[in-house]
Amino acid sequence: SSDLTLLGFSQGTVLASRWIAAGGRRMDRVILWGVPLAHDLPLDAFTAGLGGAPVQLIAGDADHYAPEGTLEEDAA
User: 73, 43, 40, 45: which is closest to 57 by C-alpha?
Assistant: First the structure.
């Protein structure tokens, strides 16, 4: 079986994080690029939906959708 990577880019990060929280298919890793997690997302549902899959958060240095400190806050 092959590895499954979920990539959310821009507004797709919000959709991907909601899909994970809703109990979408199990994935091997998650990459969320450009926008932080949805602020109203139940963090416990997101964490449970991950099932231990590693998450990589990516944003540019001057990304106005992910201001300084946002990724660190989401990672915590």
Answer: 73
How many angstroms separate the Cα of 34 from the Cα of each of 3, 23, 53, 67? 23, 23, 19, 10
Position 69 scores a pLDDT of 62
- Mean pLDDT confidence for 47-54: 92
What the block records as the tokens of 75 is 């990672």
CA dihedral 14, 64, 7, 29 (to 10 degrees): -90
DSSP class per residue in 24-48:
----SEEEEESS---TTS-HHHHHH
Cα 57 from Cα 33, distance rounded (Å): 6
What does pTM read for this prediction?
0.76
Residue 65's closest CA among 2, 8, 5?
8
